[in-house]
Amino acid sequence: MLIITIKQGKEKSLLAGDPWIYPTAVERVEGRPQEKGKAGATATVQSSSRQFLARAAYNAHAVQIRARVWTFREDEPVDHAMMKRRVKAAIAKRAAAVAKLGPEDLMQLINAEQDGLPGLVVDYYGGPAGFLLCSFQSGAVDAWKVPIVQALLAETGCPNVFQRADEELRKGEGLQVFTRELAGIPPPVKSVVNKGGVKVYMDLKTGFEFPKRPV
């Protein structure tokens, strides 16, 4: 595991609960070169006096955010179980909305740092027979894609998971830009989406809304 040492005085934001570590706050990073070069590698974050601050995902390739905090608890490991636990908790928070999801409805199921999954945004379309649309916008969650997808499938019963790609955000994290199905089948080119009582045509792969509305 990597060790990130924070510059003296820069630990205040972490102690206040800020989950982002910027390049200007990092004094040094210790660990094996192959780990340092891996986007999303798990790191222990410490102060200049070697006080434990957090466990975070380190990304040397990220332009703006050098590390994203997973936990401020020293006794909480970063592993497959954490990812599955957090996906489950995020879905449980929105269980009432999920239960009401109609075949043309679209809702946000997971919202990144708000759900303890930094950089992960998941939209849910159409209920159990529909599609889970995932944006892995950071090296942190991209490194844990497999257990995250496994948990999404298990907790929703939806068989279709598709990866979206925000080009600017993924390039800013040093990640490859591509879209593909991660489970099941890809969504169709055009889908009818109910947006607040108004039906629109949408490309679920990108979120693009076509100008012509269905009759």
Please, could you describe this protein's structure?
With 215 residues, this protein is an alpha+beta fold. It is built from 7 helices and 14 strands. It has helices at 12-15, 33-36, 80-93, 95-99, 139-142, 145-156, 167-172; strands at 2-6, 20-21, 26-30, 41-46, 52-58, 67-71, 106-111, 120-125, 131-136, 161-164, 180-183, 191-195, 198-203, 208-209. The strands form 3 sheets. It has a 6-stranded mixed sheet with strand order 2-6-5-4-1-3, with no helix packed on it. A 5-stranded mixed sheet has the order 7-8-9-10-11. Strands 12-13-14 form a 3-stranded antiparallel sheet, with no helix packed on it. α3 (80-93) packs parallel to α6.
Question: What is the fold's blueprint, element by element?
Answer:
Blueprint (H helix, E strand, L loop, with lengths): L1 E5 L5 H4 L4 E2 L4 E5 L2 H4 L4 E6 L5 E7 L8 E5 L8 H14 L1 H5 L6 E6 L8 E6 L5 E6 L2 H4 L2 H12 L4 E4 L2 H6 L7 E4 L7 E5 L2 E6 L4 E2 L6
Number of helices: 7
Percent helix range: 10-25%
Largest sheet: 6 strands, mixed
- Can you tell me the residue ranges where pLDDT is under 50 for at least 5 consecutive residues? none
Mean pLDDT: 95
> In sequence order, what are the helices and strands, one letter per element?
EHEEHEEEHHEEEHHEHEEEE
Label the overall shape.
elongated
Number of strands: 14
| Radius of gyration, taken over Cα atoms and rounded to an integer in Å | 19 Å
Query: Taking strands numbered 1, 2, ... along the chain, how are they ordered across the largest sheet?
Result: 2-6-5-4-1-3
Head-to-tail CA distance between termini: 56 Å
Share in β-strands: 25-35%
